[in-house]
Amino acid sequence: xRFDISFLFLGLVLFFSxxxxxxxxxxxxxIVIFADDLGYGDLSSFGHPTIQTPNLDQMAAEGQKWxxxxxxxxVCTPSRAALLTGRLPIRSGMxxxxxxxxxxxSHNGLPSKEITIAEQLKKVNYITACIGKWHLGHKxxxxxxxxxxxxxxxxxxxxxxxxxxxxxQEKGGYWEVVTDPKNNLIENFQxxxxxxxxxxxxxxxxxxxxxRYADQxxxxxxxxxxxxxxxxxxxxxxxxxLFASKEALGKSSRGLYGDxxxxxxxxxxxxxxxxxxxxxxxxxxxxFTSDNGPWTAFNEQGGSxxxxxxxxxxxxxxxxxxxxxFWAPGKITPGIVDQIGSTMDLFHTFTKMAGVPLPEDRIFDxxxxxxxxxxxxxxxRNHLFYYRENELYALRMGxxxxxxxxxxxxxxxxxxxxxxxxxxxxxxxxxxxxxxxANQFPDVLTAMEKLITGHQEKMRVGEDQLKxxxxx
Length: 472
Ligand code: MG
Known about the structure:
By secondary structure, this protein is an alpha/beta fold. The protein has 2 domains: 354 residues, Alkaline Phosphatase, subunit A (3-Layer(aba) Sandwich), CATH 3.40.720.10; 73 residues, Arylsulfatase, C-terminal domain, CATH 3.30.1120.10. Strands 1, 2, 3, 4, 5, 6, 7, 8, 9, 10 and 11 form an 11-stranded mixed sheet that branches. A 4-stranded antiparallel sheet has the order 12-13-14-15, with helices on one face. The N and C termini lie far apart (95 Å). The site of magnesium ion (MG) has 6 residues, from loops.
């Protein structure tokens, strides 16, 4: 038989081009979508009967739905610092016994010596964007571009701030303005919209802010489709005052709050579609969660923690446990995960995924979730410290949670109660924290005391960045 050399050559070309020369694996793109004051029970996939979130529900079905995932704190500023640095905010000085969050007259912000997820990812050439609410210092030296982000577009603090003095006088104060939905007018909240380091609009048009944040995210994906990217999309809503675009208004039978959540969900659908259109859906991890629980002081204008107790500002489960979804088709092991996770874990997880060393000069409160996300293994995290301001209020260890101190919700401020002996709940049996079982499990409390002693021995409290305001 005659040997056909051209056939052999073609075969070799095909063999080397298709089989034995693997394409260099592209790092996964990373998107974190962070809602503001969203309750554990506010998505249809987490049980809400009249809010429809089909895009998030689809992502939960295709990816992992986490039922025991926590924010790093129960209010905005410390929670955001915790997510971006992988550290309890008490360590970075981003929690305080004097003020719970930063205000438009605050002097400080996230210290430059803190390392953010964006800075970690920049080390391996990710392009990074922060779109939305920052709330880690609005002065230029503290804005996202000075913390590892290549692009910023957003309102730098909460959307209920910068109320004109004349309106406060006329209505009788902050609460009188914000509790009446009739005051939800753009001009009543003179918050700035910032692009990179420049103010481009004031007051920010909040009617379409949710839509604009989604559009900006889509545009960033399309512009940077050839590079690995990290997008931190932090919506200003559903924090009060509630705003939705004309297209979204009246769509939900839950009312305005439902319209807001459904508009956020619709934007997420557009972001997922953009990933599909650009062929990036098989190479992107999207995480959805929230900064703290629902602001129950606002009744119907606030959300619902579902079966959990309490809301924003408290260390009850409703204040810090968040409806959370991880989505990365073809990469993530789909399922419902009831192991413990925290927004602080994203720092270690992303760092590990990107192959960047974890800095060794500081203490982290961050665990690598990647074995659980991608290999179906058990979580490393088995405990969680719940701080309110700079005081340790509660500890979760495995199934159990002890409360040493409790206090009411943000804006309601029920009396501070010290519990000695602590209240103890089995959160897997009793997620609503109804039945104190301290008497039955003295050994659990002893083991918790030991864990706390070790934790507190190593604690170095960061210099308070929140205390200084106005003429202070
Ligand atoms: Mg919040």
